[in-house]
Design brief:
about 75% helix, NCD2_sf
């Protein structure tokens, strides 16, 4: 009995399903009969659906790749933040440079021209020290000492004397000419005078030989004699310049000695006048 009831239930379900399928097929037939579609149109519809599905798939892939999309406004804000950060960093460097100055701090641009090259080098060294350790700016005495020490290592002084002088090229300095005594100067003056007289005689002799060689038309001898004559004249000119220099020095020395003698005589006269007793009015 139970088996028969189960079979009847299955038959009823099957019949109900069959009726549904039959009704749906009839509806589709009515639609197809009202709107007939060709095979080509069906193919186009299928291709459009495929293209749409591909586009949707691509858009989903792009969204997955760019999980955090950034708008144009957000990009502009990021760029502005970077600019602000760079300006703040530059401002802080300018503040450090101004506060670490040893010379010319707080002066106007017109008065900064008075800063020497050495002072500028010290300021640059102090700025480098302050960049590495900003807390050293507050102890200005130590900052100045360390800045001068660092600047002295690379600074090239213009003067050629001084204990702190450093030259870029280590060339040998010219030795100073030793001072001549009075006797040595007088001896050199006499020696120069004798040499000038001898060279004058040699020049006259060379000129005489040259004129005779010109008369004989011996051009080779003329060339040699002309070279010798020029050499004698050059040597004579050097000796004359040296003699003039020594004579000037001798004249200065004599003038100095005469002035010194007059000064000593004047001081001795004033001393003798001071030693004389004062005679009052009688």
């Amino acid at each position: 009995m139970k088996n028969m009831i189960k079979k009847q239930g299955l038959l009823l379900k099957f019949q109900h399903k069959f009726n549904q399928l039959h009704s749906s097929s009839s509806v589709t037939e009515k639609v197809n009969s009202s709107n007939p579609v060709s095979v080509e149109e069906e193919i186009q519809v299928v291709e459009k659906r495929k293209d749409k599905a591909n586009q949707q798939r691509l858009s989903l892939d792009v969204i997955k790749e760019n999980s955090n999309p950034v708008s144009v406004e957000e990009e502009i804000q990021v760029v502005e933040k970077r600019k602000d950060k760079a300006n703040q960093q530059r401002l802080s460097l300018d503040v450090i440079k101004e506060k670490s100055k040893i010379f010319g701090r707080g002066k106007s641009s017109s008065s900064k021209k008075t800063i020497t090259s050495w002072q500028k080098a010290v300021n640059d060294a102090a700025f480098c020290i302050a960049q590495q350790s900003p807390e050293r700016m507050y102890d200005r005495t130590q900052l100045k000492l360390h800045a001068e020490e660092d600047a002295r290592k690379s600074y090239i002084f213009k003067k050629s004397s001084g204990s702190r002088t450093k030259f870029s090229n280590e060339e040998a300095r010219p030795e100073k000419r030793p001072k001549l005594s009075i006797n040595t100067r007088e001896e050199e003056i006499g020696l120069c005078s004798l040499e000038i007289q001898a060279l004058t005689g040699q020049a006259k002799e060379a000129q005489r030989k040259l004129s005779s060689a010109v008369t004989l038309k011996d051009f080779a001898m003329c060339s040699d004699l002309q070279t010798e004559y020029r050499r004698i004249l050059v040597e004579k000119k050097k000796k004359e310049a040296r003699l003039a220099e020594l004579q000037i020095k001798q004249a200065r020395h004599m003038k100095y000695m005469a002035k010194k003698k007059n000064k000593e005589e004047g001081s001795s006269k004033s001393e003798t006048a001071a030693k004389k007793p004062f005679k009052g009015i009688q």
